[in-house]
Amino acid sequence: MSICIFVSAITLLGQLGQPTKQFVGTNGVAETPYGTVRVVGVGQLSNGKIECWNIDGKMDPVITERVQNQLHGQNIQFKYGYNNLFVLRETDSSSSSNYSWDSSSGDKSGWSWSQSIDSRYENQRRKSTEIALYIPSIGDKSITASGYFTTSGASAAIAPKIGAEFKLGTSTFKLIDVKKLSSQNFSGFGNMPSWQMVFKVQKGDEPYTSINAIMSTSTGQPYEYVDKDGTPKTRSEQGRMGNPMGFGVYCSVNFTDNDTMVVSSSANLAKAERITFTISNRISVVIPNVPISPNL
């Protein structure tokens, strides 16, 4: 079995003071530049059957049938003593955007389970429907359905040499140091050699929230392994060495202060032919006042 781990790392840029935009929906719908999120309805299990209502709190047999069909045969763990709600959500977004529930949103309990019902592409748009189990706190009158869109932004590549510079939007990054550290225990990878690159950052005004780093050859072949000396290898190079195991490549990106970015890796970063950096934009979506009970 070979270790096949692509080098990728994401870190929040909130430490750089880059804000995350928030879009608040009304009447169950939130419109954003990346797409639309709509809470279709809410349901609950009552006396052995599922009953659902729409965003206005009116009982809705169509939503009830959709939820019943999806949950049939599912093994779902309910929380005893709480109001276990099913929330049905639809998303229409650009094909390059991805929407996720915010599992820490709402009350102390929040989202505990979710499942995709349908996901398809139409005219370069991603259309998806998902159902989630939500457990509000006792006494709540409504819940807030929160999540976020993430999409890739600008990218730039450099040969990792001291003094190399690149720009992402209006932010400038300059490589000022490459150094070897003592072995580190990378989560999930054990003790591995470790190297660091240090960049000075002149931040711009883009509202991007994360950055991704990928090491590759000059022709774009990703490094998937490192040898015992930390030299990065592609899959074909590792195979020719007759040692398909090797170490997996691990990389992380962090900001130590407002103007310093540190890239850490199990590979000798100075031996990589190219490192490509890509920013990701992330905006939050909040849909408040979702009724947790029908208007009877």
Give an account of the 3D structure.
6% of the residues lie in helices and 54% in strands. It starts with 9 loop residues before the first strand and ends in a 5-residue tail after the last strand. It has two helices and 20 strands. The chain folds into two domains: 10-17 and 152-282, no CATH class; 22-148 and 284-291, no CATH class. The model is unreliable at 1-19 and 105-109 (pLDDT under 50). The chain is mainly beta and 296 residues long.
Q: How far is the N terminus from the C terminus?
A: 59 Å
Give the low-pLDDT segments: 1-19, 105-109
Q: What is the radius of gyration computed over CA atoms, rounded to a whole number of angstroms?
A: 23 Å
Number of strands: 20
Share in helix: under 10%
Average pLDDT figure = 78
How do the helices and strands follow one another from N- to C-terminus? Answer: EEEEEHEEEEEEEEEEEHEEEE
Q: What class would the helix/strand composition place it in?
A: mainly beta
Largest sheet: 6 strands, mixed
Tally the structural domains: 2
Shape: elongated
Q: How many helices does DSSP assign? A: 2
